[in-house]
Amino acid sequence: xxxxxxxxxxxxxxxxxxxxxxxxxxxxxxxxxxxxxxxxxxxxxxxxxxxxxxxxxxxxxxxxxxxxxxxxxxxxxxxxxxxxxxxxxxxxxxxxxxxxxxxxxxxxxxxxxxxxxxxxxxxxxxxxxxxxxxxxxxxxxxxxxxxxxxxxxxxxxxxxxxxxxxxxxxxxxx
Length: 174
Hints:
By secondary structure, this protein is mainly alpha-helical. The protein has helices at residues 18-31, 48-55, 67-83, 98-107, 112-133, 140-154, 168-173; strands at 38-41, 59-62, 88-89, 165-166.
């Protein structure tokens, strides 16, 4: 496990430095009359300075003329704030990845036995849904009704689909 030496923030040890970071936040606010300062980074690149300013409680504005850097800034600074705490359904392709889903279920606090059962149920649900969606022999009217019924059953409590809502961190991993 690699860790940095020195500085106010030892990477991978943020929780150990929580008191020190809070002290810095308070000192910064004291220096600015009790409010958080505004930080402008006109050549922000990938956003290291605004990101750290935000971590210290400052209001940060980041600008860059390079469209790639601008997009990275949006992804690093803006989207995580907009999506924080919001759970969204995992994409269908990742539901078939047993390693990923095992890790996901384990993080949800499931036991090995529960994970095995959930993976089995998920595999069945995914296969059933694929069969239903791509059945060329099914009549059109029935297919629509069956699809609607299947959507209801996939989201029911008997299905593991209700566990497949995940936050931004899991979507990034997917």
